[in-house]
Amino acid sequence: MSKSVSHPAHRGAPRPFRSPNVSIARTIAGSLRAHGKFVGRVTLASGIAAGALVAVPAANAAPVSHETTTVEPAKVVEAPTLEASATPTAMLTDIKQLERAVEVQERKAEAARKAAEAKRKAAIAAKKAAEAKKKAEAEAKAYAASRQGKIDRAISVASEQIGDPYVWGATGPSSFDCSGLTQYAFSAAGIELPRVSRDQAASLPTVPNDQIQRGDLMFWGSPVYHVGIFLRWENGQAIMLHAPKPGASVREEAAWDGWFAGSTHQA
């Protein structure tokens, strides 16, 4: 409900009027407007420079009037009053201090914003790295469980035995015969082979020699008497890993003539 209120021209006891220094007031006001800050203080600063006390009401304050008017009830928030005796120089010093304080706060706020943004980006990067690691681990696990992964593991295990001596009938872990080496390596990779080379050849499908793949087995004789692991081709020559014969050690070398291939991939 509206009600009639009366607004006095001044609050409190009257203060002595001082002759305004219009030039100073205009200079201060212009400086403040140029900075675009403390707009609400322009009127206040100008009044102080002129020697008068000016109260700047908040945006929601009712208009000041010498007459009785009818207005809606509103909360009036008045700007803080300053001593009428304040000099323009002191006022400018206070305003500059306030400007510097605002600039400091703005710099701090910007630094905080940048720090928060850097933290957010770091969190995103860490999440992506964790996801990539998890994916790589899953792929590695799947590969290790695959047939090719197992065959590669068998080759790796057999390569670790290079230099171990050939001993007839030995199946490791520090000495081997030819079939003992292949059985040991493939068993470590999760692929079971029979004990002797003749039975290993019988357990694998035969493939043409030019279709042999890394990790397939190479056999000699009929009946079979020797076995090695095919590694690669070099200048048209098959390279194998095997335990050759008594007095020799596990090694890589060019395949002997007369071999045929048994596929560990198709078994």
Task: Report what the structure shows.
- By secondary structure, the protein is α+β, with helices and mostly antiparallel strands.
- The protein folds into two domains: 16-60 and 75-106, no CATH class; 148-262, endopeptidase fold (from Nostoc punctiforme).
- It contains six helices and eight strands.
- The strands form two sheets. A six-stranded antiparallel sheet has the order 3-8-4-5-6-7.
- It starts with a strand and ends in a 5-residue tail after the last strand.
Describe the SSE topology.
Elements: E1 3-5, H1 22-35, H2 39-49, E2 69-71, H3 88-145, H4 147-159, H5 178-188, H6 197-203, E3 206-207, E4 217-221, E5 224-234, E6 237-242, E7 251-254, E8 259-262
Antiparallel strand pairs: 1-2, 3-8, 4-5, 4-8, 5-6, 6-7
Helix pairs in contact: 1-2, 3-4, 4-5
Q: Which key terms come to mind for this protein?
A:
267 residues; alpha+beta; endopeptidase fold (from Nostoc punctiforme); 2 domains; six-stranded antiparallel β-sheet; two-stranded antiparallel sheet; 8 strands; 43% helix; 14% strand; disordered N terminus
Question: What is the count of β-strands?
Answer: 8
Overall pLDDT metric? 80
Taking pLDDT < 50 over at least 5 consecutive residues as the criterion, the unreliable ranges are: 1-10, 16-22, 34-62, 76-82
Question: Which strand order do you get reading across the main beta sheet?
Answer: 3-8-4-5-6-7
Helix content: 40-55%
Radius of gyration: 47 Å
Number of continuous helical runs: 6
